[in-house]
Structures are given as structure tokens and as C-alpha cells.
Amino acid sequence: MHRVRPYYWGAIYLMDTACQETFDIGFDGDGPVHATASHAAIMVTHAGTVDEDEADVTLLVRVAPARVAGMPHEVAFDVPSGLLHVGDADGSDDIPLDPPGRWLLQIAVDNPREARHVEIVASPLRPAAPTM
């Protein structure tokens, strides 16, 4: 997936599409990536604080069969529905992840304080437990 657009909330949010838990991320601390057991947020250029022609953020998301080298940030959480929700309140995409289960999200940004280019690589850690 490739998107170029402004993020008026200043972050890209990630979670399982079927997640019913309240978004519980605290944005304390340094770094562009914040996460809990079920959510992640990547801090990006806040479109409301820059000129309109400087607000676009490029987002690249790809799925890989295994962990890749060279990505400085990592988050792991469950995606039991097999759909990773990526976006914010103004727009989002659902990325299919097969098999459903625990996934590693590796993240790289061009600038940890005002990211304008974000790359996410998703790879499976383990499949979801069978339901009975």
C-alpha cells in the first residue's frame, strides 16, 4: 500500500480491524513509535502545524514473509481478524494479513520528530490459535 496525504491528527494509528478495546496509547516519552498490546501509533508531521504544501506524509506498507533487516522500530501485536487497520480519523485502509495471528510491525521514519516518510513492514510471528 502506498498513500500520500496529510495527517491532521499528527499520527498514523494501527490496530486489528476487529479490535474492541479502547485506544489506550499514552504519548509520553521520546521516539516516533508508541505501542500497547493491541495498538500502535507513529508520530508524523501534524498537518495543522505546517503550511498546506508541506503537510503531506508518504506511507508505504508492505507484507514480508519474515523479519527484515534495517528497520529501527518494532512492534508486535495480535491481528486475529487478519486485517490490519492503518490510518486516522480522516481516512484509513485495512491491510489483509495471512495468516491471522501475532504479527511483527517494523517501522522506519525519515525524521523521529516530524516524519514525512513512513515505511512499515509486517511479517507473521505466529498464526492465531484455532477456535473451537
Protein model, in words:
The protein has 132 residues and is mostly beta strands. It has a single domain (2-127), classed as Competence, DNA-entry nuclease inhibitor, ComJ (Substrate Binding Domain Of DNAk, Chain A, domain 1, Sandwich), CATH 2.60.34. It contains no helices and 10 strands. It has strands at residues 2-6, 11-16, 33-35, 39-43, 56-63, 73-79, 83-88, 91-96, 101-109, 117-127. The strands form 2 sheets. The chain has a 5-stranded mixed β-sheet, with no helix packed on it. Strands 3-4-2-7-8 form a 5-stranded antiparallel β-sheet, with no helix packed on it. The chain is globular and about 50 Å long. The model has no long low-confidence stretch (mean pLDDT 90).
Question: How many strands, which pairing sense, and closed or not: the largest β-sheet?
Answer: 5 strands, mixed
Broad shape:
globular
CATH topology: Substrate Binding Domain Of DNAk, Chain A, domain 1
N-to-C order of helices and strands: EEEEEEEEEE
Question: Termini, distance in Å?
Answer: 34 Å
Q: Indicate the mean pLDDT.
A: 90
CATH class: Mainly Beta
Strands in their spatial order, largest beta sheet:
1-5-10-9-6
Helix content: under 10%
Number of domains: 1
